[in-house]
Amino acid sequence: MSLIYRWAALAVAALLAFSAPAQAQRATGAGTKITAVQIQGNVRAEPETIRSYLQLKEGEAYDPAAADRSLKALFSTGLFSDVAIDMQGSTLVVKVTENPIINRVAFEGNHKIEDDKLRDEIRSKPRQVFTQARVRADVERLLSIYRRSGRYNAVIEPKIIKLEQGRVDLVFEINEGNVTGIKRITFIGNEHFSDGTLRGHIRTVESAWWRFLSSDDRFDPDRLNLDRELLRKFYLSEGYADFRVESAVAELSPTRDGFFLTFTIHEGERYKLGKVDISTRFQGLDVDTLKSYLTMSEGDWYDANEVDKTVTALSDAVGSLGYAFVDVRPNIRRNRETHTIDITFNIQEGPRVYVERIDISGNTRTLDKVIRREFRLAEGDAFSTAKVRRSEQRLKNLGFFEKVDVSAVPGSTPDKTDLQVQVVEQSTGEISFGAGYSSVGGILGDISIRERNLLGKGQDLRLGLSLGTLSTLIDLSFTEPYFLDRPLAAGFDIFRTTNNRQAIASYSDSSLGFALRAGWAYTEHTSQTVRYTLRDTNIYNVQPFASPVVQSQAGESLTSEISETLSWDTRDQRLNPTKGWLIRHTIAVAGLIGDNYYFRTTADATFYQQIVEDFVASISGSVGYIAPFNNSNLRLTNRFFIGGDSLPGWAVGGIGPRDGNTSDSLGGQYYYTGIGELSFPLGLPKEIGIVGKAFVDVGSLWGAVPQAGANILDDQLMRVGTGIGLQWLSPFGPIRIDYTFPLVYQPYDKLQNIRFSFGTRF
After folding, report:
1. What is the predicted pLDDT for the residue at 761?
2. What is the DSSP string of 84-106?
3. Which of 269, 372, 451, 608 has the smallest number of CB atoms closer than 10 Å to its CB?
């Protein structure tokens, strides 16, 4: 009996095994011929559009693998949130649930970043199909914006508001959080320089209350890479040729309110210079002459910056001798045993490359021609690194751009290159205020409005107004730097001045006139300006007790003057220069028409030199001489008056010839001044922008015109003064205050101890 049961069990098992594939085939429909395809659930999508993504057709056998590929194809369209494919008998049924359409995209909770800026970054737009994947990507983009602005605590949550007819409103709820600053900057591996010294040579700074106007205390991955490079440059400039940054790690604090930056560095050994030499393959090039351009010598500490400066100096020198294609390469040989570096500057002919195109970008306001005319190269010229560098400097000197970057990229052929000019424009309109205090002049102030890039054409328009107890000035000036598209700067000035000189000379004067001027450049550093001035001057309100000299000159006079000024300017930059010369010489003659006949000549020079980093010294001097002719009387308004800005420590007209009976300042025919100044850091964080000033000034004015009844005090005593000051390059413009100590002066001089000025831009 047990045998019968055993055989029965085996038979049942075999039957079940035989019927299982048939049941599975019936359940999945595999192999079943499709007689119809039915689309269900679609509202906006056309049935034929859905059918085009299916890899199962009527008349074909159902294939589960093809059904799976069809599902993926339909999901990839982004049109559907759910898709199901099923066989019902011989009918293939495709059920879809369509994604809604975005009706509106909104942002809530954002206060620091405008809606428009956020909207430009996301891909979800109104009237587009809503997809979860796109929204997730948009959230990441928005978070990246907040991270770039230093807000790593930002939280963004998308919300969906369902509307009728398959539409939704997409709302990004934003919690911006606080700015994530830099809590601490640490260096590991530095033995020769302290953490504080290294912090002073990188861009990122630790957060502090006074840095509310700066963004350098916010974490920025790009700035971190810049810091690595700045550290490398610093150590290479100090002779550590083996230096490297092994790692730069930024860790978010547990409270997510700040970052800890850690730089792990390897300083290596310090190297001195061994043999420094020059070699060249150019025939006829005197190597001994070129050695005068070397800024380093054997025994000096190795300085990578000096190597770069020498390469630049040699390239410029050889290029000026007529060699168009110059390639200067420093061959550096390092001796690790003696810790010395030998350098040979190889001067050879570079590849013959010509400028094919000059492409300019970033100038939304400034016209292309304003930028192109500053280039020392034109399309088709031989490529010159020195000329490219000079062109870049000329663009920076315009003052129109916050950033200028000129780079060379390969052209259409190996012997051609394109110059890509990228600029970032800045405000060129400015409003300046000035103020001062004089022991005899009281409070004075001035205001001027200026646009240095009028209509993007590079034209300069200025309207100035100066009000004070001593003088009032209204002047309008206009300059076209390229008159008739030629390198000729032409312009005009219209002015109206009144001067209350009662406190220093017992009279007042006023002038009304205009000037026409034209200037041109002879070389990169030499220029000339010619000016014609016509002005009507009136001396009035002469007091009864005034000096006989003053009383004899009451009334009006007409002056017609022509002058020319020759300038030589080698400053590295016009604002806050660190090296170079500025020398000017002016000759003027009056008498073509009018009542005044005189000859005047003046000369002034200033030299700037950076002594060490952040210490800049300047020495300036000025001399002048004026003499009447044609039996003319030299009027007070044409004489020299020294003091104020021209000689700190003394008021305007504070030195020079004076009537001993009335103390009236009478002006002089001869003068000289000299000022030596040192700009130095005060130990404050550099980003604050406050520097100290120390100066010494000397000067004298003499050459009074004799007058009957006047007790004229006139001597050539050299006045000497010294002073200290502070200058703050504030976000509102430069602010300066000085306190001066006159050391050598005459008892009748008029002193001025405190001066301050400030300015701003818009």
Report:
1. 39
2. EEEEETTEEEEEEEEPPEEEEEE
3. 269
How far apart are alpha carbons 472 and 496 in whole angstroms? 8
Top-ranked range on mean pLDDT: pick from 27-31, 290-294, 348-352, 574-578: 290-294
Residue 220: both structure tokens together: 């920025």
- Taking CA atoms, 155 is separated from 136, 183, 211, 545, in Å, by 13, 21, 25, 79
Give the E-state strand segments of 362-441 in sequence order. Answer: 401-410, 416-425, 429-438
CA 1 to chain centre: 104
The confidence band for 262, taking pLDDT boundaries of 50, 70 and 90, is: very high
Name which of 174, 116, 179 is nearest 150 in CA terms.
179
- The residue count of the chain comes to 762
State pTM to two decimals: 0.59
d(CA 702, CA 656): 5
pLDDT reported for residue 10: 43
Q: How far does Cα 178 stand from its chain's mean position?
A: 28
List, in order, residues 6 or more apart from 337 with CB less than 8 Å away: none
Cα gap 398→372, rounded to integer Å: 12
Range among 116-125, 430-439, 460-469, 585-594 rated most confident? 585-594
Quick one: how many helices (H) and strands (E) in the chain? 13, 34
C-alpha torsion sign, points 127, 133, 139, 143: negative
Say which residues have a Cβ less than 8 Å from residue 610's Cβ, sequence separation at least 6: 578, 579, 616, 617
- Secondary structure (DSSP) of 170-225: EEEEEE-----EEEEEEEES-SSS-HHHHHTTSS-----GGGTT-STTB--HHHHH
Strands 488-500, 471-480: parallel, antiparallel or unpaired by DSSP? antiparallel
- In DSSP terms, 420 is beta-bridged to 359, 407
Task: Give the Cα separation of 121 and 416 in Å (integer).
Answer: 38
- The upper half-sphere exposure of residue 468, i.e. CA atoms within 13 Å in the direction of its Cβ, equals 26
Inter-residue contact 130 to 123 (CB < 8 Å): no
- Can you point out the beta strands (E) in 221-284? 244-252, 258-266, 272-280
H or E element at residue 136: helix 132-148
What's the CA gap between 53 and 37, in Å, rounded?
13
Exposed e or buried b per residue across 651-671, where buried means at least 16 C-beta atoms within 10 angstroms of its C-beta: bbbbbbbbbeebebbbbbbbb
* 599/594 Cα distance (integer angstroms): 14
pLDDT of residue 752: 84
588 Cβ contact partners less than 8 Å away, ≥ 6 residues apart = 561, 562, 563, 599, 600, 601
Token pair belonging to 387: 């000329």
Task: Order the strands of the 272-280 sheet from edge to edge.
Answer: 272-280, 340-349, 326-335
Instruction: State how far the Cα of 417 lies from the Cα of 252, in Å rounded to an integer.
Output: 45
